[in-house]
Amino acid sequence: KGNGMIGNIYSMGLALQALEATRKFYAPRKWDCAQAFSVVSAHDYQQPTAIAQVLPALVGRSYLDVAGLDCAASQDISPSRQLPLSPMLEIHGIPRAHIQVHYSITNTLQGKHFHYSTSVTVPSGSTLLRVMEVAAEQNPQTFSFQTEQTSWGPYVTSIHGLAASTDDRTYWQFLSAGDALDKGVGIYKPHDGEHIQAIFSTY
Length: 203
Prior knowledge:
Blueprint: H1 12-21, H2 23-26, H3 33-42, H4 48-58, E1 98-107, E2 114-123, H5 128-138, H6 140-143, E3 145-150, E4 153-159, E5 162-163, E6 170-176, E7 179-180, E8 195-202
Parallel strand pairs: 1-8
Antiparallel strand pairs: 1-2, 3-4, 4-5, 6-7, 6-8
Helix pairs in contact: 1-4
GO biological process, one term: cobalt ion transport
Keywords: Cobalt, Cobalt transport, Ion transport, Secreted, Signal, Transport
Pfam families: Cobalamin_bind, DUF4430
């Protein structure tokens, strides 16, 4: 893409590793790695899997380099110098402001079509998963959903009783202002007044 993105933010780590590891095979074709690296540098990675995939590329290595690493040379690193990747800041005892998020679910793909909308109020900084939970608590008949835990965080497998299927190549896609979200439901934090759409889609 023109902004340096390769696929999406989750595929960037492996894509950068692949491009660096195979650099000599696509020369003399020029690849603007600086633009791609600026994309990953600006992103706030939080899932361990995403961090594990992007870190090798950021230090100029790939998973292929593991076979040649000298582990003995790294034993002298003091634990006090090993800084956390993303420090978590918690503020206790201070009430957070609340936001209102509009949430809709739509199926025009299979079986009986449906479209339902609701507005929920959650504390500022809540994830999309929390928005979905509140919607399901308020109206379980309509907004119930199921997830499965993956290395990338919770993955929505079913909404309103309609399950995604690899056989049918269907999944629940989440959008904001018509654009697919670049983070999972367990990480993405909607802003006040935002409209999140869950649309049953095919790939």
